[in-house]
Design brief:
Among the domains are: 101 residues, Nucleic acid-binding proteins (OB fold (Dihydrolipoamide Acetyltransferase, E2P), Beta Barrel), CATH 2.40.50.140; 169 residues, P-loop containing nucleotide triphosphate hydrolases (Rossmann fold); 167 residues, P-loop containing nucleotide triphosphate hydrolases (Rossmann fold). The longest helix has 33 residues. By secondary structure, the protein is of the alpha/beta class. The radius of gyration is 30 Å and the shape is globular. Strand 11 and strand 12 form a beta hairpin. Strands 13-14-10-15-16-9-17 form a seven-stranded parallel sheet, sandwiched between helices. A six-stranded parallel sheet has the order 18-23-22-19-21-20, with helices on both faces. Helix 7 packs across helix 8 and helix 15 packs across helix 23. Bound molecules: adenosine-5'-diphosphate (ADP) and magnesium ion. Adenosine-5'-diphosphate binds next to helix 11.
Length: 713
């Protein structure tokens, strides 16, 4: 494989500077890139339809010959028409805005077209079908490579170069590629060997061969990734030293007794998992995944108290000031009565001190807090990004919690972790309310331990979600459903409950977003919700104004809060029971689920209204999913289904360490197998000293500069 990586594509016949550039545009620089550029799909010539058998409405693949092609402009738009035949019958192809098709569809050429069959003036026709030029290929199964048209590369060019590479390197002509995957694994899963897999993925004789090849190559990709992740995790564990915390100390016990409700089993289990980590000198790197409202804060507080029990400090970092303030208020309330030992006082103890550090605080307050942190007079500090400034120093920070971790960059989380005492590394708990499927978590957070809060506190009534198909901007005559919705809002307020109205998301401009929130606020105050106390919260308010508004809402003096998505994360007002989301189709599933999670947090029955017209099929599926499901993990699966994994893997999606063939959606089971195998291999041979070929392969695929992508925690 390393040999392939060293050979540029220019070594191939027919690849000059122009082709080299086109290949580079699709990320192919060398023969390894070429061989791991896998077909997008396969055309099975025995399965193709005949034009004569097609009826309107069918979706079909047809192998045709181009009979004629012409282009004209209709109101400035290019329209290319082609007539094609399968030897017996003919049909028309029509392309809009694809002027280049005129040159592509040369008369006499063979092509596979795939699309929906329609008709025009009595003749069968496909509009904007997918076209794969097949050249003069005679094989039964033809591979089709991705993006080949855009870069000016045809699928058969690629197939040709790949064939040349395979012919020269695989037996009988070549030496073949090395297979560094341990034999035991190959046998356990009944994999075909790597040479065979590479050949069959590109040139299958039967579709069955292709599936075998795919199974093998998917495993290789996932196995490499898991090896890298698990190895990285173990390296950190063996080189970093943290504090052995006291677990179940006096503060933790008193706290547990003071909680006014029973912990859920999931909370108990999670706290036990964390405690086990805290007790060892190996620094914890743990992710706590839990749906909105599952009670993550309590788990975080219990963990932080373990640090305080040992005479150390803990910090909780939240992404917004609103959330930091709320945590501060909430945690102070939870810990109000607790004391810590202090020999300098008469009683030998002092109240446990929780402090808030956010940027809006005055210089004097900030100075005092910074001083107290350094002296160890503050036990738990809650804050925003302010916590990671250089001037923030601790006496002994040994426990770090990062809430809504996806809102922070890797460096920001690391900056807080670097504030531990001397060389000691604090235990780190990162939390997220954006659940992702378990197998995706193994890939994205593979270097972290994961705890899952998969149980809601009892007594919650499920939130009833309704979708009202009406303009989300509230323009025009309101339909009956909307009137019912506002009526429910007024009734709920009449019963003492509170309501959120979330305004349309405007991507391009915060200014426009604020303007629309102001307009909505104005309208609701004067029309639908006249007479109620309606407040407004958006990103352009000063921190003080934001806090004042939130305080008024939290205290119950305000009935309705009209807000932009600043309230998306974390906000916890159990008395709020109605969530209205305007222009709901503009939000993603995870975001809608987060917003909805702001209600249903108390004992009262809650509802969520999604207002908007689905303008895309995906938008419709999203809204329907929200109506049907309240479980964040199931919604995460649906989201993965709708959007693909690119969004989950995010920034990781570049470079050779990409998943080229594997799909977190399709291959979830293989992820689990690959991780298990990686753990077994590394248990037996931690540095891969006895398997130099495997180590070299990891080196090849995970060059050092890629390491940052691996490190999510
Ligand atoms: P999230 O996981 O979304 O951060 P929070 O920690 O804010 O959730 O908890 C949501 C609400 O549930 C809070 O009001 C909290 O007091 C309450 N809560 C947490 N654990 C329990 C429990 N075991 N029983 C009842 N209520 C709980
Ligand atoms: Mg929370």
């Amino acid at each position: 494989m390393a040999d392939f990586a060293e050979r540029p594509v220019s070594a191939l016949k027919g690849v000059g500077p122009k082709r080299e550039k086109a290949l580079s545009a699709v990320g192919i620089e060398n023969l390894l890139d070429l061989l791991t550029y896998y077909p997008r799909r396969y055309l099975d010539r025995t399965k193709e339809a005949r034009i004569g058998d097609l009826v309107e409405g069918d979706e079909a693949s047809v192998l045709v010959t181009i009979k004629s092609t012409s282009m004209r402009r209709v109101r400035g738009r290019a329209m290319v028409n082609s007539t094609v035949t399968d030897g017996q019958s003919s049909m028309a192809l029509t392309f809009f805005n694809q002027a280049w098709r005129e040159k592509q569809l040369v008369v006499g050429m063979q092509a596979m077209v795939f699309g929906k069959v329609g008709s025009f003036r009595g003749q069968l026709q496909m509009t904007n079908p997918i076209v794969d030029l097949v050249g003069d290929k005679t094989g039964r199964i033809i591979p089709v490579y991705p993006q080949s048209e855009k870069a000016g590369l045809s699928s058969w060019d690629l197939a040709g170069w790949i064939a040349e590479t395979l012919r020269r390197s695989l037996p009988p002509k070549g030496r073949g590629v090395l297979d560094p995957i341990p034999d035991a694994i190959i046998r356990e899963f009944g994999f075909v060997d790597r040479n065979m897999a590479l050949k069959s993925i590109h040139q299958p004789e039967e579709m069955q061969d292709m599936s075998q090849a795919r199974r093998r190559l998917v495993f290789d990709e996932l196995f490499r990734m898991q090896l890298a992740l698990v190895q990285r995790k173990r390296l950190l564990e063996s080189t970093q030293v943290g504090v052995e915390h006291v677990i179940n100390g006096p503060l933790v016990q008193k706290f547990a007794e003071s909680v006014p409700f029973d912990l859920t089993l999931a909370q108990k289990r999670t706290i036990a998992e964390i405690s086990a980590d805290l007790a060892t000198p190996v620094p914890m790197h743990r992710l706590l995944q839990g749906d909105v409202g599952a009670g993550k804060t309590l788990v975080a507080v219990a963990s932080m108290l373990a640090a305080v029990d040992g005479g150390h400090q803990a910090a909780l970092m939240a992404p917004t000031e609103v959330l930091a303030e709320q945590h501060y208020v909430g945690i102070r309330k939870m810990l109000g009565e607790l004391t810590v030992p202090d020999p300098s006082t008469l009683m030998g103890e002092r109240p446990l001190k929780v402090a808030l550090l956010v940027s809006r605080m005055g210089t004097a307050d900030t100075k005092r807090i910074l001083g107290d942190l350094m002296l160890g007079n503050i036990d738990i500090v809650v804050g925003t990004h302010s916590l990671i400034q250089d001037r923030v120093m601790f006496d002994s920070l040994t426990m770090v919690v990062v809430d809504e971790q996806h809102r922070f960059g890797v460096e920001q989380r690391a900056a807080l972790r670097d504030k531990g005492p001397g060389e000691l590394v604090p235990d780190v708990l990162v939390m997220t309310a954006t659940p992702i499927p378990r197998t995706a978590a193994m890939t994205v957070y593979g270097d972290l331990d994961v705890s899952v809060l998969d149980e809601m506190p009892p007594g919650r009534t499920p939130i009833v979600t309704k979708w009202v198909e009406a303009p989300g901007s509230l323009e025009g005559e309101p339909p009956l459903d909307l009137e019912l919705m506002w009526q429910e809002v007024r009734e709920q307020v009449g019963e003492g409950r509170q309501v959120y109205v979330v305004c349309p998301l405007i991507d391009e401009s915060e200014k426009l977003e604020v303007a629309s929130a102001e307009v909505t606020h104005e309208r609701l105050s004067n029309l639908e919700l006249e007479g109620l106390n309606v407040g407004l919260l958006h990103g352009r308010l000063s921190s003080a104004e934001k806090e004042e508004t939130m305080e008024e809402f939290r205290s119950g003096r305000m009935d309705v809060l009209v807000a932009t998505t600043v309230i998306e994360v974390g906000v916890d007002v159990p008395n709020a029971t109605v969530m209205v989301i305007l222009d709901a189709d503009r939000f993603g599933i995870a975001q809608l689920h987060q917003l909805r999670g702001r209600v249903g947090r108390g004992a009262h029955e809650s509802s969520c209204w999604l207002v908007g017209e689905a303008t895309t099929p995906d938008g419709e599926s999203r809204l329907e999913a929200l109506v049907a499901e309240t479980d964040g993990f199931i919604l995460a699966e649906i989201d993965l289904e709708l959007r693909g994994e690119g969004t989950i893997l995010g920034e990781r999606q570049k470079g050779r360490n990409d998943l080229q063939l594997a799909s977190l959606r399709r291959d979830g089971e293989v992820v689990v197998q690959a991780r298990q195998s990686a753990i077994e291999v590394l248990d037996a041979d931690p540095g891969l000293a006895n398997q130099p070929e495997l180590a070299a392969e990891l080196q090849l695929f995970f060059a050092e500069e890629d390491e940052a992508f691996l490190m999510k925690g």
